[in-house]
Amino acid sequence: MAERYADIIVDISHEKVDKPFQYRIPPELSEAVYPGVRVHVPFGKGDRDKTGYVVDLSDRADYPVEKIKDIVSVDEKGVTAQSSQIQIAYWMKRQYGSTMIAALKTVLPVKQQLKQLEKKKVTACLNGEALYETAAQCEQKHQTAKARVLRALAEDEVLPYELIRQKLHVSPAALLALEKQGCLKIETEYIYRNPVRHIPGEEKRVVLGEDQKRIVEEVLRDYREGNPGTYLIHGITGSGKTEVYLGIIEQMIAMGKQAIVLIPEIALTYQTLLRFYKRFGERVSVINSALSAGEKYDQIRRAQAGELDVIIGPRSALFTPFPDLGVIIVDEEHEGSYKSESAPKYHARETAVQIAAMSRASVVLGSATPSMEAYYRAKTGEYKLFEMSARHGSSTLPGVYIVDLREELRQGNRSVFSARLRDLMERRLEAGEQIMLFLNRRGYAGFVSCRACGHVMKCPHCDVSLSEHRSGKLVCHYCGYEEVRPATCPECGSRYLMGFKAGTEQIEEALHKEFPGARVLRMDGDTTRRKDSYEKILAAFADEKADILVGTQMIVKGHDFPNVTLVGILAADLSLNQNDYRAGERTFQLLTQAAGRAGRGDKPGEVVIQTYQPEHYSIVHAADQDYKGFYEEEITYREFMQYPPIAHMMAVLVTSREQESGRQLCGQLAGLARLERDSRNGGGHTLQIIGPTEAVISKINDWYRYVFYVKHKDYEQLVTVKDRMELYCKDREKEIKNITVQYDFDPMNTY
Ligand code: ADP
Ligand code: ZN
Ligand code: ZN
């Protein structure tokens, strides 16, 4: 029998996941050794006995065979929380194509010291005058650090200790000395460990409706019968899905089980979290990007220790190691942010199903506009489908108008606002009601080009045009490169270098011009770069400090503004023109969500969709809020083209420092895929290979990009091809420096 080898990480609980070491699997252990198992191995010079975890298996030795030691035995206390996490990582590595280390890093929490359960502050004990005086005395004695802190305290009576240490560069000794002198006090404040603090108020309990009760009962009945499934709840916003989640979780907790609730970060609003806290109290926690690594690790440790029942968070909360997981909820399952953009490029929905299968838990997906994947699987019986149609509360569906922008132009209207939209906006402004304007682009998306010679200003590092910002700078949205906008064309010297403005900034400008009295807020990638600015803009709009909110897709998610009675979608087809098989789906979702923003309160709402393609099915069905109509047309297109979810598709992206080597490797890998295709007698189905070609964006950050696609009905067939390519690259590791190969299964967009 051929030798087999295992990659083993010794002491995985380290601060970081280290490089694995390869060991031989003795034949008598071949059955017992698989990823996740704990084993004893000889380690280091003295061959000391150590325990480690098997993370990967291989038929090939990566080192000279005589240097490889044998695994001694399998640890009897074998299965731990880490074992199952390693199994998940191993599954992700295989399923999505990445290194095992990258997969482990995604799954395993990085052990971190929780630095601050306490926070120190420094308070002045003298008045300002006395502080300045003492500072002057210190300066004479050349104690400049002491002088700095005294002056700072004269300005602000209380300062964080950290800030003084790090920004004023004052030593602890100097601070202690000043405390002894009676100039200041150092105090310690304890901060709560729960990232969401004290929750006020009592929950008002609702009595579940018939349809809600039926879902809760069916999910739990299957679970109790030892037959947990995957369920899709299709229900418009406000139909009561969250109440269903709460009902399921409540009963799971009563059985001693725990729940993971995935919510896209952008929809993790204070309001939503509050509902969970009010229902489940202190045993709920949140993971979000505002937490430090130490705080995140602390939440995970608490989950592992049985101190939590529910964890809420975006994608990464999926890997919370609960002792007895009962259910994973994936709210807004259609959201693109559930797909990881770095290797392993996993999808949280599919990974949730896998994790649930391993822990015998249920999965509940919810959406007003389900992904094609989820709805297709629900239709084919892989998931159970529940439809919820009525809205709870007083709100009603808005009235929707589609405006043909070509017609507007024919009528001589050159404004970005159609006559209909302008008319409705004026009425809202008069009535003191609020308006949301939605544009599916950010910044001055428009490029700058020369009207004389046609030259387009491009990023020197990326194959994309630069965008003009109001500051007068030209900015690359891929790498951040900036340059000052030249006055004349660098090619021909003409002065007619013009920007094609079509972004939120331009809308804002147009509003100031055409509705001079209106108060406008803008929200896009540029105004929300700072962490809290997103919340601040929304809060200001909720407080009615503005009449109009202009923004990109981030304004259409999740938030309820009862005073918004008009939503304008300025150019609905910008997202259709992307060269991408998911463009129709994304447009439908965006429009449906945007339309759903209008009329959330007592007043009825209206929606204006401006478009150049008024007859496009994504737009027509979104205007009718007709999901099923959209699904039927979209699935026909996917069927015809053999795109996901009908078939599976793997993108292979090769990026390289040097153009020719990347092009060559991409060609070789595509050749390998073609060999694989020709060698198979695939029962009725064959592998389809598209490409290789230059990627749509052929260069980013000075890395050249080549791509090809492989399609097949059967996912496993693609995995096999991917495995072959991985081996091919591994064999040539030395030659292919400065080249990366990335795999993306069922990609969210084309490359
Ligand atoms: P979704 O998650 O589908 O958007 P929610 O669960 O948030 O819907 O419900 C929308 C609103 O209707 C909430 O304010 C919720 O409290 C209320 N609601 C939901 N179900 C009921 C019910 N059975 N009886 C009364 N109010 C309900
Ligand atoms: Zn020119
Ligand atoms: Zn760039």
Summarize the structure.
With 751 residues, this protein is α/β, with parallel strands linked by helices. The chain folds into five domains: 5-107, PriA, 3(prime) DNA-binding domain (GIY-YIG endonuclease, 3-Layer(aba) Sandwich), CATH 3.40.1440.60; 117-191, no CATH class; 210-388, P-loop containing nucleotide triphosphate hydrolases (Rossmann fold, 3-Layer(aba) Sandwich), CATH 3.40.50; 399-444 and 501-639, P-loop containing nucleotide triphosphate hydrolases (Rossmann fold); 648-745, Ribosomal protein S10 (Alpha-Beta Plaits), CATH 3.30.70.
Give a verbal description of the structure.
Helix content is 33%, strand content 22%. With 751 residues, the protein is α/β, with parallel strands linked by helices. It folds into 5 domains: 5-107, 3-Layer(aba) Sandwich (GIY-YIG endonuclease); 117-191, no CATH class; 210-388, P-loop containing nucleotide triphosphate hydrolases (Rossmann fold), CATH 3.40.50.300; 399-444 and 501-639, Rossmann fold, CATH 3.40.50; 648-745, Alpha-Beta Plaits (2-Layer Sandwich), CATH 3.30.70. It has a 7-stranded parallel beta sheet, sandwiched between helices. It has a 6-stranded parallel beta sheet with strand order 16-26-25-17-24-23, with helices on both faces. It binds adenosine-5'-diphosphate (ADP) and zinc ion (ZN) (2 copies). Residues 206-209, 212, 235, 237-243, 392-393 line the site of adenosine-5'-diphosphate.
